Amino acid sequence: MAITDILSAKDIESALSSCQADDSFNYKSFFSTVGLTSKTPDQIKKVFGILDQDKSGFIEEEELQLFLKNFSSSARVLTSAETKAFLAAGDTDGDGKIGVEEFQSLVKA
């Protein structure tokens, strides 16, 4: 499944253009601009499955750093500070990774 099966290419392009500069990524505005906040829990779960590159059932720090590349191969990687802030926001149980329920909560926050 491609991410464009769930989210529109136009929304993805718009969301990516809003965070091209280092340290400009804001997950709340990105999720909103890309249209993820208006998706069903099942659709959000499918996006999670795409982001979970190693299919471990979790999005780990390394996968978070490459978060934007899941939307476009030409997108930048997140900076260390952005990655750590993103992980801290989503990792509600403190295990150092984001599970599917945590991701769904983060998207709807």
UniProtKB/TrEMBL annotation:
Alphabetized GO MF terms: calcium ion binding
Claim: Metal-binding is one of the keywords in the record: yes
Binding site for Ca(2+) 2: 91, 93, 95, 97, 102
UniProt binding sites for Ca(2+) 1: 52, 54, 56, 58, 63
Gene3D superfamilies (alphabetical): EF-hand
Cellular component GO terms, alphabetical: cytoplasm
UniProt cross-references to SUPFAM superfamilies, sorted A to Z: EF-hand
Superkingdom in the source lineage: Eukaryota
Domain EF-hand positions: 39-74, 78-109
Repeat as UniProt keyword: yes
Record keywords, A-Z: Calcium, Metal-binding, Repeat
CDD domains, per database record: EFh_parvalbumin_beta
Pfam families the record matches: EF-hand_7
PROSITE patterns in alphabetical order: EF_HAND_1, EF_HAND_2
Assigned protein family: Belongs to the parvalbumin family.
Function of the protein: In muscle, parvalbumin is thought to be involved in relaxation after contraction. It binds two calcium ions.
PANTHER family for this protein: PARVALBUMIN ALPHA, PARVALBUMIN, THYMIC
Protein name (record): Parvalbumin
Source species of the chain: Bubo bubo
